[in-house]
Amino acid sequence: MIGDKRMSTSGSKIYYLVEASALPEVYRKVLKTKELLEAGRVSTVSEAVAQTGLSRSAYYKYKDVVFTFHEKSQGKVMSFSFTLRDEPGVVSGLLSIFAKSGCNVLTLHQGLPSGGTAVFTISVETHNATLSSDELLEALSGVRGVLECKVLGSE
Question: Are residues 81 and 45 in the same domain?
Fold first, then answer.
């Protein structure tokens, strides 16, 4: 996710979600540098930029405007859409993952089943989540009866 210092007409920052392969190399290196620091694999910025081949000045120039989806979705409201098999316990399995990971359910909706499947949408607050967005998505996708899992958005 790339931050844009310009403001929208409402005064909020503008963000773009961009596939990693489309990012300039300097942005990918900034993200890798941040990852090394956050994971504790290095203890200083100097060590991290040496490993990624990035200059310290480039790191400091972009570190506050280039983010992973995970960084920007922590502590936020995330909305998911699922296609589920019409079987007992599937929604319960999803809700269990959200509860165990510390997410707070804000809204949920399940459509009537049709053709053996049902659409289920849920919005959760992730402020106290113990899983990253990617880990949460992986856990949800692995629930028995989940045919499709998508992130609709994050605020």
Answer: no
Q: State the total domains in the chain.
A: 2
Average pLDDT of the segment spanning 34-58: 92
Answer yes or no: do 39 and 99 share one domain: no
Q: The domain that contains 84 carries what CATH number?
A: 3.30.70.260
Identify the pLDDT of residue 11. Answer: 63
How far apart CA 53 and CA 30 sit, in angstroms, is: 10
Is the pLDDT reported for residue 128 higher than 70?
Answer: yes
The pLDDT value recorded for residue 35 is: 86
86, 115: one domain? yes
**Rounded CA gap, 26 and 52, in Å?**
10
- Which of 119, 124, 90, 120 is CA-nearest to residue 107? 124
Q: Which domain holds residue 142?
A: 74-154
